[in-house]
Input
Amino acid sequence: MILDLILSTIAFFVAVYYLRKYFNELGFEKGFMRALVIFLAASALSTGVSAIVEKLQGNSANPLDNAAQVQKQVQNMMGR
Output
């Protein structure tokens, strides 16, 4: 969970940097719409990075499954 948060945050800021650079090269004027497009594209990219990392780690996207796994781990630790 922490790893995907860290990597998605890094991906967000990297995407913002390169999108701003790309839009400057294209000559788009700075303004609200440009900032909104950059924000939405960077958010989508960081969400994708988070989903990929979560899949690679084998984490379930279902919170109930995650809660059940944590509960089993806690019960195992208490039983020892």
In short: Residues 2 and 69 are 17 Å apart (CA to CA).
